[in-house]
Design goal:
binds zinc ion
Length: 314
């Protein structure tokens, strides 16, 4: 960049030199223009005097051979400008022209740099724009792919929702059917329970009737029992009466037995050791002191050594 700039400056100097040569020959430059350019050179050359010197030196080297006089002239010009002298020698036009050309060359160089910089910036901007476009393209593709994926997923989702809807409809239908069955069963159950309630009421009535019947039978049983008790009481009385009668009868029998006992079974003769029936004629002839009224068995008498009478034969 620097070398290019220098090269451009050199070329500008050569051009200026040519112009100066032309000016010398023609000398057609206007005095007014001369003055204004000189003034501007005076103000600006002070800043870039060094640079001008360097460039001037280089220009000398390049254009050394053709004119050695020009070299000294330009040096003088620079020195004069540095000092700020108002003196305008004969070569003032050339010096100011050179300074102007140097400025123009610098300006051109700066413009060239600026242009290149702006070109580079434009190229960079274009590259960035291309990259941006590329990125946007990629982003667009990605977003298209994402949109396609999203659309596919939405379609799947819609399909699943449709299936889910159908499933839920089927479930609802099934549920409704089951509810209807349930209602039917409940209706049946209700009727059955009503029937059961009716049966229960009948059973209750039946139980009530049975209860009444039971009470009636209990009452009857109680009555019967009471009657039986009365009967038993009567029978007891009757038994007591009959027992009393039996006792009386027994007493009478005992009395009878006692009465019978007063008549002995046999009359034994303690003197002769013979025994007789009480009605035997031999008893009448016995003495009262020999009579033994025996109440017992004839064998007892025999065992005691008594003999039965031959007449009454007991
Ligand atoms: Zn006798």
């Amino acid at each position: 960049m620097k070398s290019k700039r220098k090269l451009a400056a050199i070329w500008m100097i050569v051009l200026v030199v040519c112009m100066v040569a032309c000016g010398k020959n023609g000398n057609s430059m206007l005095p007014n223009t001369k003055e204004t350019t000189t003034v501007s050179v005076q103000t600006t050359t002070a800043k870039s005097s060094e640079h001008t010197e360097q460039i001037g030196a280089k220009a000398e080297q390049k254009t050394a051979q053709p004119e050695t006089t020009n070299k000294s002239e330009s040096q003088e010009k620079a020195e004069n400008t540095e000092k700020g002298t108002a003196e305008i020698p004969a070569s003032t036009i050339d010096e100011s022209a050179v300074a102007a050309s140097i400025q123009a060359a610098e300006q051109a160089s700066r413009e060239e740099e600026s242009r290149k910089a702006s070109e580079a910036a434009a190229a960079e901007s274009s590259r960035q724009a291309a990259e941006q476009a590329s990125r946007e393209e990629e982003s667009r593709k990605v977003s298209e792919a994402a949109a396609a994926e999203s659309s596919r997923q939405a379609a799947e989702q819609a399909s699943r929702e449709e299936e889910s809807r159908k499933a839920s409809e089927a479930a609802a239908a099934e549920s409704s059917r089951q509810a209807a069955e349930q209602a039917s069963r409940e209706e049946e159950s209700r009727k059955a329970s009503e029937a059961a309630a009716a049966a229960s009421q009948q059973a209750a009535e039946q139980a009530s009737r049975e209860e009444e019947s039971r009470k009636a039978s209990e009452a009857a049983a109680a009555e019967s029992s009471r009657q039986a008790a009365e009967q038993a009481s009567r029978e007891e009385e009757s038994r007591k009466v009959s027992e009393a009668a039996a006792a009386e009868s027994s007493r009478q029998a005992a009395e009878a037995a006692a009465a019978a006992r007063q008549t002995p079974n046999y009359i034994a003769n303690t003197n002769t050791h013979k025994f007789h029936y009480p009605g035997c004629s031999s008893v009448d002839q016995m003495k009262e002191e020999h009579k033994w009224h025996f109440y017992g068995d004839r064998q007892e008498l025999i065992n005691q050594g008594y003999d039965p009478c031959k007449r009454c034969n007991p």
